Amino acid sequence: MDCKKFHYWLTTRDIHQKLIPPDAKDHMTGCPECRSLFIKDDILEKGIASTYAPEDLPRGIEERISISLDHDRQNFLNQVTGKKRSAALAGAGLVAALIIFALFFTNFYSSPTPAFKDLNQITLQAATDHLKGNRYMSFDARETQAALSMLTKKLGFKVILPDLGYLGYTLVGGRLCAIGKCRAAYFVVEHDGKTGSLFIMDKNFIDFPMADGSRFTTNVKGCDTCIWKDHGQVYATVF
Ligand SMILES: [Zn+2]
Question: Scanning 89, 154, 184, 212, which has the fewest C-beta atoms within 10 Å of its C-beta?
Fold first, then answer.
């Protein structure tokens, strides 16, 4: 296997398949660059895994569900007798299970549906995430091309960087992240000696009309922010 074949394998491999084919393993042993790409790819995977890590049900919600069900169940039981009673109990149990199931799944899989209702919401979320100060990077500027194709694969939309030269930004590096509940690409950029954040997310995450190229600039929480849409994706910068 040569580097080209290795890159092809890396970008097309099944992320659920943990076994590395022997020829890919052999190539990594002799090629530090491909080995480092593989490690970065794995870090991206872990980033996704933690973004989507199952969360426990909010505190008390199970109790609240059973209490309201007990109340309904009691009303229901007052109307039935004998054999019907066990069927009713089974019915109530099934309803409880379905509600918990539904809560679980709306919690896990709500991300692909639009999450942002307006520009202010994106601005606030981006500024909040920026101010948390997590500048962890799983790749640096020199690896941008490989990283972009990996991010594209992970995020399911073609991640295109804005014209950084035109904006006067210097790219430092980036990682996979989430802006609020939406998976996004995150880049650390520098401008005029200041370190800023650039978030890129799919346009499907916004639930309002936004024209390509239109810019929304404001200052929130002491940060200068800019949101715009281009190439079918939404960009947010925070300095
Ligand atoms: Zn190689």
Answer: 212
DSSP 169: -
- Cα 172 to ligand 1 centre (Å): 24
Q: Residue 138 C-alpha to ligand 1 middle, in angstroms? A: 19
- DSSP class of residue 137? -
Q: What is the Å distance from ligand 1's center to 41 Cα?
A: 14
pTM: 0.57
CA angle 177, 175, 239 (to 5 degrees): 80
pLDDT grade for 182, boundaries at 50, 70 and 90? confident
What is d(CA 213, CA 230) in angstroms, rounded to the nearest whole number? 6
pLDDT in the model for residue 199: 96
Determine the average pLDDT of the residues in 119-140.
91
For ligand 1, the distance from its centroid to the CA atom of residue 187, given in whole angstroms, is: 25
Residue 138 has pLDDT above 70, yes or no: yes
Distance 101 CA to ligand 1 centre (A): 45
Strand order in the sheet with 194-202: 139-140, 170-179, 182-191, 194-202, 233-238, 223-230, 215-220
Instruction: Give distance in angstroms: CA of 6 to centre of ligand 1.
Output: 7
pLDDT average, residue stretch 1-16 = 80
Q: Is a pLDDT exceeding 80 seen at residue 165?
A: yes
C-alpha of residue 140 to centroid of ligand 1, in Å: 18
